[in-house]
Amino acid sequence: MEKKTDETTGKKEPFWGIGELVVRLIEFLEAEIDYLRYRAWSLIFLLLLSLILLTFSVLSLFIGFLYSIWGLYLLFSAGIGKIGGAFLCASFMVVLSGFFLWMIKKIANRMLK
């Protein structure tokens, strides 16, 4: 974790990258699941969280599908330079969809323990 210096006070504040934010989010979710494990409304909270993540997953997969269609259109038209960008965006969205599904799997495994 790098430190970013504030120019006015000289204090150092933490600077987190994307990977650190993902790790912190997963740690937060695990702590919440442990806290809510024995509560009656924890199942509703976790199902709602899973539904939100599933919605993001389906949306990401749909956007990735649209980007791949656009890439195929560009493949058969004159826009040769934009093909890589379209397929790169499509693959990123599909990977993002898989990440959301992986988080749902982790939540379900923690619920069943």
Written description of the protein model:
The chain has helices spanning 18-36, 42-75, 83-112; strands spanning 2-5, 12-15. It is elongated. The protein has a two-stranded antiparallel ribbon with strand order 1-2. The protein contains 3 helices and 2 strands.
List keywords for this structure.
mainly alpha, two-stranded antiparallel ribbon, 73% helix
**Overall number of structural domains:** 1
Q: What percentage of the residues does DSSP assign to strands (E)?
A: 5-15%
What does the radius of gyration come to?
20 Å
Q: Indicate the mean pLDDT.
A: 71
| Global outline | elongated
Ends distance: 32 Å
Biggest β-sheet: strands ordered side by side in the sheet? 1-2
**Main beta sheet, described?**
2 strands, antiparallel
Give the topology string: H per helix, E per strand.
Answer: EEHHH
Question: Low-confidence spans: pLDDT under 50, at least 5 residues?
Answer: none
Tell me the total number of β-strands. 2
* Portion in helices: over 70%
Total helix count? 3
* Helix-strand category: mainly alpha
